[in-house]
Structure formats: structure tokens, C-alpha cells
Design brief:
Elements: E1 2-6, H1 15-31, H2 38-48, H3 52-56, H4 63-66, H5 74-95, H6 97-118, E2 126-127, H7 130-143, E3 148-155, E4 158-165, H8 166-183, E5 190-191, H9 193-214, H10 217-223, E6 254-255
Helix pairs in contact: 1-5, 5-6, 5-7, 6-7, 6-9, 7-8, 7-9, 8-9
Membrane topology: Multi-pass membrane protein
Transmembrane segments: 15-32, 68-87, 99-118, 124-144, 151-179, 191-212
Keywords: Cell inner membrane, Cell membrane, Membrane, Transmembrane, Transmembrane helix
Length: 256
């Protein structure tokens, strides 16, 4: 199950969302050649990723911020940027450009801190923007619970695009992060589930003042949870999107 777009057009150009996507892609391209050498890429991650054990020793605090703009591979980057592209424009539209940027950074820093306290002795470098993007998703859930999101469902060789309410898609995603967090050792490589959970909750909480300013429960009553403007419509058709190949042998890191 993978979201590919929503039916919630924004009313103005999301300059910050686009800038964040460009920054993430540009930074990834700048160090991508290092990924051909395990020692070089791990040295790079040592300097710029979030390593909880270093923080516990009083070092590496800059990793809370810099890790938000690093990724562990193409699929990691593309997946995160797709989620930011789908949900970021509407949050930026409602918050305004500068406030949205502060919101994004605050959610990312909070998510990184939650990950740190979940495994303060972990020596595994943590990289990825999805803690901040989880915050965007949490805010989106509060403001537009019934906005339609098209998800791509893949069952072996069957591909289907299905529009579902945002609260179902985001609720399932959040539940999967919680189950993943309890089912995975916090000091192992892989997905930083608790960063996702923390970012989502922090983003939802930071959006509450905006939601209350819009009217709170009465805002939901007026819109019935839908976006307060006509939804975009798409012609849904069968998809022949190819699957990705086997995972490459890359150094162990934790992705968020």
C-alpha cells in the first residue's frame, strides 16, 4: 500500500515544500558517490548522521538537524520526497510559508529526539527526513481527515489504485509504525519507527493551535473533514508500474 497523490489541491505555490525537496535531492546527489565505498560513506554518516551513542557522550548534537537532510539510498529518498510532495503543499497552504518551515524543522528535531531517547546507546547512524514528514502527516490528519488519497495496492503482480479517506491511510500508517517500534530492537539498523511515531504525534500537536483558530470541531462540522475547496479528480486506470530489484548490499544504517 503506497500513496501516490491526494485530491486536495493547494491554493498557492508551496515554495517551501519544493525547496525542501530540492535541498534533499541536491544533498543526496552531493554525497552519492561516497556510497560506492563503505568506509567513506560510514565516515560521512559519522560526521552528519544522528548517532545516539555519540550524543550520550556529549558529541554529535548537530546530527539532530543534519540527519534530516540525508538518505540511505534512492528508494529511501524517493519515498520520503513523495510523501512530502503529497501532504506538504496543503500544510504549507494553511500555515503559510515561514510557519510551515518552522513546523517542519520542529517536527524533525522532535522526531530525532524521540528516536534518541528510545535507544540512547545505539551506535547505528540514523538518517532521513521522514521524522519531519511524519509531522506533516500528523497535521494533515487533523485538518483534512476525509481528504481522498489515492493509494497504489500491489499484490504480487496485481496493481490497483484505490482512493480512500486520509484518516484510513494515515491511521494505518501510524499503527504500522507503532507495531514496528515494538517489534524491532531500537539499536538495530532498519527503520527508525519511534522517530516516525514521535514526529507524527508532535506534528499533530503543533497543528492544534491552527485547527482551533480555524474553528476546531466546528471546522470539521463545516467541512465534514473534507478540504474546504473542491477536490481534484483523476481518471483511475490500471497501472503497470514495474517493481524494484533486490536490495543492494549497503552499510547498516537506520532510516527515518
Amino acid at each position: 500500500m503506497f500513496p501516490i497523490r491526494d485530491h486536495n489541491p493547494s491554493g498557492r505555490t508551496p515554495f517551501v515544500t519544493y525547496a525542501l525537496i530540492i535541498a534533499n535531492v541536491g544533498i543526496f546527489l552531493s554525497y552519492f558517490p561516497l556510497m560506492q565505498n563503505d568506509q567513506e560513506i560510514m565516515r560521512f554518516y559519522f560526521d552528519y548522521a544522528l548517532i545516539p551513542a555519540l550524543v550520550s557522550e556529549g558529541q554529535g548534537f548537530s546530527g539532530f538537524l543534519t540527519s534530516m537532510f540525508l538518505h540511505g539510498g534512492w528508494m529511501h529518498l524517493i519515498g520520503n520526497m513523495l510523501f512530502l510532495f503529497i501532504f506538504g503543499d496543503n500544510m504549507e497552504d494553511e500555515m503559510g510559508h515561514f510557519v510551515f518551515l518552522l513546523f517542519y524543522l520542529a517536527a524533525g528535531l522532535g522526531a530525532a529526539y524521540i528516536h534518541y531517547i528510545s535507544a540512547p546507546l545505539s551506535q547505528v547512524p540514523t538518517v532521513g527526513a521522514s521524522g519531519a514528514i511524519a509531522g506533516v502527516m500528523g497535521g494533515y490528519l487533523l485538518l483534512f481527515p476525509k481528504a481522498k488519497v489515492d493509494i497504489l495496492i500491489i499484490i504480487v503482480i496485481i496493481f490497483r489504485i484505490l482512493p480512500i479517506p486520509a484518516w484510513i491511510m494515515l491511521g494505518l500508517w501510524f499503527a504500522m509504525q507503532i507495531f514496528g517500534g515494538f517489534g524491532t530492537a531500537a539499536d538495530e539498523g532498519g527503520v527508525a519507527y519511534w522517530a516516525h511515531v514521535g514526529g507524527f504525534v508532535i506534528g499533530l500537536g503543533l497543528t492544534v493551535p491552527l485547527w482551533l483558530r480555524l474553528g476546531g470541531p466546528s471546522y470539521w462540522n463545516q467541512t465534514e473533514g473534507h478540504p474546504p475547496h473542491p477536490e481534484a479528480t483523476y481518471r483511475l486506470s490500471r497501472s503497470n508500474i514495474p517493481h524494484t530489484g533486490p536490495r543492494s548490499n549497503v552499510p547498516r544504517i537506520r532510516r527515518k
